[in-house]
Amino acid sequence: MRRFRNIRGLARALLLAIGAAALSGGASAAEPLTTADKVALQSTMAQYIEQHTVGDAFLHVDPVSGVVEKLYPATQHPMIVRLKDVVVLCADLRTQDGKMVNADFYAARDNGQFVIFQTEIGNRAPLQALVMKGAASLLE
Known about the structure:
The chain has three helices and seven strands.
């Protein structure tokens, strides 16, 4: 499993977490997450990135330009957002020229394990909108 470290990314995540906590209305959670769940989620995200890496990069098609971007893991955020039975994990990926791009990984339980079923690359707006309207909330 790769370990991602980047102080600026972590600082951004913490600022987003503080803002999300202040703005969220507290989405309901079906089943509380244990510390073991949180560790499993972070591991699931790292494995997902590793398994979906082509060559040495995580590929993403820019939906506006159609350009296939090569992205490289930079930082896993400790932040977890809850949307009822779904959890959202966040990470920073970096472009070839060093620009940071946020990545949100949506996961759900399946037979006791977490499965990532959707990713949003460079598109934090949907998650922020869910937090703003109280449908999602930051886990402490």
